[in-house]
Amino acid sequence: MVPKDDPDVPSRVEDRDTPRQPWLLTAEDQPPLRRSVVLEVTARAVFPTVLLLSVYLLFAGHHHLGGGFAGGLVAGLAFVLRYAVAGSAELFAAVRVRPLALTGAGLALTTVSALSPVAFGEPVLASGKVTSHTPWGSEIALNSNLALDIGVYVLILGAVLDLLRTLGAGVRSREGEEE
């Protein structure tokens, strides 16, 4: 049993998934000579393009290479780039949602979309298709696998963000011990 006044034990539920120490130095903590303005500007310019590519991979997965896993990894790489350039302050300025909430939402959506065909007498992961006609004469077909892919996309993105949040949490304390 852990004593309640132990400072290493989080007292609230919200504090349990908060890292105790940051991984990289924030922009304010970094000396000006260690920062690259060109790399920061390039990363900010490339970030939306890489996210758009990840959404394309998500939706192109049924007809071409891609899908929820590939799209989620590409989106995760966009956040890794932003994190590597400017640190945790820049990453969490870009992401307002908790990584564990993303992971949970992705897992829930994936589970519901995988098990929902059972309610209609179909096997698990059975696919369904809904076709609708637009007023201008075209046809839009939605596949039920898209919900599964979106769930996997959100799950992978949440896992990558959680890894970025917790990976290497002791770097700053080790740097302080060396000095």
UniProtKB/TrEMBL annotation:
Start and end residues of each stretch annotated as Disordered: 1-20
Compartment(s) where it occurs, according to its Swiss-Prot or TrEMBL record: Cell membrane
Domain Na+/H+ antiporter MnhB subunit-related protein: from-to ranges: 38-161
Highest rank taxon of the organism: Bacteria
Membrane topology, from the record: Multi-pass membrane protein
Primary subcellular site in the record, as a coarse category: membrane
Keywords: Cell membrane, Membrane, Transmembrane, Transmembrane helix
Biased composition range(s): Basic and acidic residues: 1-19
Cross-referenced Pfam families: MnhB
Membrane-spanning parts: 65-85, 97-120, 140-164
Family the entry assigns: Belongs to the CPA3 antiporters (TC 2.A.63) subunit B family.
Name of the protein: MnhB domain-containing protein
Species the sequence originates in: Haloechinothrix salitolerans
Source taxonomy: Bacteria, Bacillati, Actinomycetota, Actinomycetes, Pseudonocardiales
